[in-house]
Amino acid sequence: MNSARQAMIEGWKSPRKNEPTREPTRDVTAPRFDSSTRISKLNRGAPPKPANAAAVSRYLTQDEQSEQFVADEDKFVLKQAKKKADIRVREHRAKPIDYLAFALRFIDADRDIFDDNEADVDIDIPAPQAVLESLDIAQLKELDEDIRSYHTLEANSTNKEYWTALVALVADRRQKLQPSGPEGRALATVASDVDNILSPKSLEQLEALEKQIRAKLASDGPIDTDYWEELLKSLLVYKAKAKLKRVCGTIKAARVELLRTRNPQKAKELEESEGLGGTVPASFAPGLVKAAPRPTAPGPSTQNSSAPPPGTARFASTGNEDFSHATKALYDREVARGVGEDEEIFAAEEAVTSGTAPLWADKYRPRKPRYFNRVQMGYEWNKYNQTHYDHDNPPPKVVQGYRFNIFYPDLIDKTKAPTFKIVREHGRKRGESFAPAGKEDTCLIRFIAGPPYEDIAFRIVDREWDYSAKKERGFKSSFDKGILQLHFMFKKIYYRK
Predict the structure, then answer these.
(1) Considering its fold, how many domains does the chain have in total?
(2) What H or E segment, with its residue span, contains residue 330?
(3) Residues 21 and 134 in one domain
(4) For 417-458, how does the pLDDT look when each residue is reduced to its tens digit (9 = 90+)?
(5) Any one cellular component term from GO for this entry (predicted)?
(6) Residue 158 is inside which H or E element, if any?
(7) Residue 307: inside a domain
(8) How many helices (H) and strands (E) does the chain have?
(9) What pLDDT is attached to residue 292?
(10) Measured by CB atoms within 10 angstroms of the end CB, which terminus of the chain is less buried, N or C?
(11) CA 457/CA 310 separation, integer angstroms
């Protein structure tokens, strides 16, 4: 090889032209040659890629960011709802919805492993269909709302299928307990024939039969439309039963696998049993399940004693209530948050008296906003209670604060936030008391918004609010994403000697 080329490759100076070849000297300022380093020229044909190209490709539009925010919020709310259901089951104070949610935990791929408890697999779980069959009309109505909340928030396909099947079965159970009109009576007369046709079929056979029935109904041929439509309705119920049975089979297999090492005898018994191995608690029998209590402030109230249970009144009522899809979504998310240990549902709504209709009534249809409010309950350990009660025999709970969540997603003028004001009747001023000894004064809190929403009012205890920002005792008043939130606690009264 040419000595000059060899010297250049090895990082030495090349000999000058017309100069005899000599022993090259090392250029101490030149970079040291490294055989593992590969140097390539910059391709000037294409512009260099920006350093933040990955960030630009990951940029989300405002709508995408909003969707992502709602999705993350839904995940958090669903996670909290599952945690509360687990706690109530472990403490033997579960409601029907808690057992349905707890059963799904053994195959839920989205569960946090830190929420698991080794003893959970030993808890007896009733079969979902047995839970439904043990409830009456009022209990099924409440359960339907709870199931739809989970169904709205769930994103996992298997879990979604589980809740979808339960929605269909609850609707079928309610229809059977309270058939109405000639359709209900006609269905009852052919129920045995429908059972003989559909009960032996598998899920795949039911899906094939469904396609045939839909094709027959879509054809122009002379058929008994009423019969085939009723058969299709029943088929969808049996299809839901088959899907639920398949999911429950997966749950059972997962529990058996967990029990093999922990309790082989129980694993064998569960494997040989029908359903999930548990029985329906006696407290679920009709008439024994207590509805959520409705706390009311002491003093006069215009609430009707025959009003529907808390949480269902907004669905059962008819009239000018807001039932838009946006409001329903907000309501479902708030309901899914559940009620804390020291909270109860608060629905002490009062009639709002207004002399004249609003000026915008002829342009927009007036509607009442929907809400999901909670009242904070607790013990007052004053001097009297400390003397007469203790922690084993606590005093009666009293109202300690409120958490109002009122939904205004369809405000015409979104720049003007809803407001509230306190109304004291009979000329009573702030700080004055007309209540007898041992009683507390009450007042109305009235929420006011622009079109198309009417005013709404609630009766609350009239005490001084605590505006501090100490965690849960903090004051909050905000309007964001269509939700007016007003959370406050009352100041604690300390007695000095």
Answers:
(1) 3
(2) helix 325-336
(3) no
(4) 999 999 988 888 887 887 776 678 889 999 998 888 889 999
(5) cytoplasm
(6) helix 157-177
(7) no
(8) 15, 13
(9) 39
(10) C
(11) 16
d(CA 274, CA 125): 12
Among the listed residues 222, 273, 308, 246, the one whose alpha carbon sits nearest the alpha carbon of residue 265: 273
pTM assigned to the model: 0.46
Q: Is the peptide bond before 452 cis (omega within 30 degrees of 0)?
A: yes
Q: How many whole angstroms separate alpha carbon 196 and alpha carbon 200?
A: 7
Is residue 391 in a domain?
yes
Please name the residue that has the structure tokens 């006011």.
448
> How far is 359 from 228, CA to CA, in rounded Å?
52
SS3 of 95-143: CHHHHHHHHHHHCCCCCCHHHCCHHHHHCCEECHHHHHHCCCHHHHHHH
Computed over its alpha carbons, how large is the radius of gyration of the chain? 34
How deeply is 158 buried, as exposed, middle or buried, from its count of CB atoms within 10 A (0-12, 13-18, 19+)? middle
Buried b / exposed e along 28-38 (16+ C-beta atoms within 10 A):
eeeeeeeeeee
- Whether residues 279 and 321 share a domain: the answer is no
On whether both 356 and 271 belong to a single domain, the answer is no
423 DSSP 8-state letter:
E
Written as six digits, the tokens of 354 are 């207004």
Task: Examine the domain organization and report whether 359 and 252 are in the same domain.
Answer: no
Pair 136, 177: CB distance under 8 Å = yes
27 & 97 share domain: no
**String of DSSP letters for 216-252:** HHHS-S---HHHHHHHHHHHHHHHHHHHHHHHHHHHH
Domain encompassing residue 448: 313-490
Q: What are phi and psi of 399, to 5 degrees?
A: -70, 130
Statement to judge: residues 20 and 77 lie in one domain: no
270/16 Cα distance (integer angstroms):
93
**Helical pair 325-336 and 137-153, crossing angle rounded to 10 deg:** 100
Task: List Cβ neighbours of 443 (8 Å cut-off, separation of 6 or more).
Answer: 422, 423, 424, 425, 459, 460, 462
DSSP 429-484: PTT---PPTT---EEEEEEE--TTBPPEEEEEE---EE----GGG--EEEEETTEE
Residue 246 and residue 330 in one domain: no
Same domain, 25 and 172: no
Instruction: Indicate the burial class of 50 (C-beta count within 10 angstroms; 0-12, 13-18, 19 or more).
Output: exposed
Interval 198-230: pLDDT, tens: 777 888 888 888 888 888 787 777 676 777 777
**What are 497's two structure tokens?**
């000697």
pLDDT-derived band of residue 404, with 50, 70 and 90 as boundaries? very high
Q: Which region, left, alpha or beta, applies to residue 218 given φ > 0 means left and ψ of -120 to 50 means alpha? A: alpha
- Considering the domain boundaries, does residue 495 fall inside one? no
CA end-to-end span of the chain, whole Å? 107
